[in-house]
Amino acid sequence: MAEYTLEIKDLHVSVEGKEILKGIDLTVKSGEFHAVMGPNGTGKSTLAQAIMGHPKYEITKGSVTLNGEDVLEMEVDERARAGLFLAMQYPSEVTGVTTSEFLRTAINARREEGDEISLMTFIKEMDKALDQLEMDKNMAQRYLNEGFSGGEKKRNEILQLMLLKPGIAILDEIDSGLDIDALRIVADAVNKVREETNLGAIIITHYQRLLNYIKPDFVHVIMQGRIVKSGGPELAERLEKEGYEWIKEELGIEDVTVGQN
Ligand code: ADP
Ligand code: MG
Question: Which residues contact 21 (CB under 8 A, 6 or more apart)?
Fold first, then answer.
């Protein structure tokens, strides 16, 4: 199995001229799950979008490499081909392209010419993934995310993860809007991908709840656009019991958001 290392060094990111991330350092290797936690407005989604190359997020300093290759120099589709994957907090709707067509194109984009996935294999794998996610088979024939409920969009993101088998995945609030049964289904699917493919991941979440189902090896807390604390799973447990207040006190800050500073 291929080994991946995603290395983020001193990453500074601005949106519309305002600095949101102020020096993020994080290294993620195959098989490692890193939870990135923090209150709202602290820069978590900005980190995900910047790594994946969303044009609105301007990197002003620092580096991101995948197996030593400069990710920031890659086009967005090259990043996916290199093995990176992003499950978005707010997936967008795409009219005119069915979920199934989108997936097959995305899978083939990661393969060499002449080595495209056969239609039979693709349908078999997709049906298996739809079953695991307890998704309606008809979903695949609908336009990507169009009219999907919040929960269906989240499952659809994980469907992509299961079929694309990336090296390193960034999962941004995949738990938001899911009821407890759906959360378990989604978490089981992520854990299965982890086992089968030695996936490495950044699991962004606001609540500790998700981490009861997807066990992180490392936990990082982000505030004011910086990682202010790192630890093991016990850090997430403490956050569940005590919230973020004690970290704010330790740091002597009141506003955790990126704010105007
Ligand atoms: P989190 O995911 O931790 O809740 P975000 O990274 O979404 O936080 O946002 C951090 C800050 O950056 C917020 O103040 C937010 O308003 C700002 N920001 C993020 N993305 C954009 C954007 N596309 N346009 C304008 N402001 C943004
Ligand atoms: Mg967010």
Answer: 11, 12, 13, 43, 46, 47, 50, 225, 226
